[in-house]
Each structure stands twice: as C-alpha cells, then as structure tokens.
Amino acid sequence: MKKSKIYTRGGDAGFTSLIGGSRVKKCHLRLNAYGTIDELNANLGLLSSMIDNDKILGEKWLSWIQSRLFDAGAHLAQPNTNNQEPTCLVMQQHVAQLETLIDSIDAQLEPLHSFILPGGCSSAAQCHVCRTICRRAERLIIHLSEEVTINVELLSFINRLSDFLFVYARYLNKINGHKEISWEKDGI
C-alpha cells in the first residue's frame, strides 16, 4: 500500500470538505463545532497522559470517551441531506454509561458545600480545562442545531460529559491528596 501525503493543498483557499465531499468555509459553524470536539479530544489525551494512579478511569474510560468524541465529530462533519439527520453512533446507552460512571465517582466524594475553583493537582486542573472546552463545544453544537438537525443523544452525551469531567476533577484531587479550593465571596 502506498502511503498518502499528509497535505493535500485542498484547504489552502480557506475551504474544507465535509463527509460526502461538499465544501464549506473553514470558519463555518459546523467546523467550529467539530473542531472544538477535536480540541476536547486532544486535551483529554493530555489529561490521560497525566494520570498515573488511576489506570481504570485514566486509561479505559478516557479512551472510551475519546472514541465517542470521534463518533460525535463524524456526526457533526456530515451534512444534513434533505433536512435529514445524519447517522450518529453516540446513543442513549452511552449517555447512561456516563451517568453510571458519574454516580459511582460522586459516591466517593464529599458533598459540596460551596462552589469550587478549578485547580488542585495538575491532572485535576487539566480536567477542568477539558470541562470548559466541553461546555464550549456544547454551546456550538446547540447553535448549529438552530440551523440543522443534530442528534439529541449527542447533545445529552456532551452535556453529561461536562458533568463527568467536573466530578472526575474532584476525584483526581482526592486521590492525589489535594484539597479543593473553595470560592470565597470576598477573596482573601
């Protein structure tokens, strides 16, 4: 098999191809949505590389989430034809799996008594970065859904993913011995 070149020059004029071959500007809302999913996925890869003491969640579950984000990106990269929703491999069962995971992690954490500030150990801080990127992706997908049909399970999955990232950041601080930083109304 001959190796293909990594560059095609097809996007040099500011356009790119969606799945199926239609061309859109690189600043199109659809590209912003799936580009942000890609950014989230890359940051989850960084998070995974930072986790040494939680192999089950750090490797198994983060890898599973990254695969679902590839599925989400593929859904968002497919144009709607005849106003029909494109195929989506993110399903209700994936949302349910995330909810089960959130519940199992949250059961190991102390109840919250105030807002917490992002931070703590480096992996928890990176997890908060992932959470904020996830929220941005969600906003972009919702904006895109005003123009085209978006799979509702995908929206639920992205929403639940940000919840997972919040509790997982708290969990990472706990297992790494870092105290959470509480928000203080008046500062110092």
Overall description:
- The chain has helices at residues 29-50, 55-76, 92-106, 122-145, 152-175, and strands spanning 15-17, 23-25, 116-117, 181-182.
- Helix 1 runs antiparallel to helix 2 (55-76), helix 1 (29-50) packs antiparallel against helix 4 (122-145) and helix 3 packs parallel to helix 5.
- It has five helices and four strands; from the N terminus they run ββαααβααβ.
- 29% of the residues are buried.
- The chain has 188 residues and is mainly α.
- The strands form two sheets. It has a two-stranded antiparallel sheet with strand order 1-2.
- Strand 1 (15-17) and strand 2 form a beta hairpin.
- The longest helix has 24 residues, at 122-145.
In short:
Helix content is 57%, strand content 5%. With 188 residues, the protein is mainly alpha-helical.
Structural features:
188 residues; mainly alpha; two-stranded antiparallel ribbon; 4 strands; globular
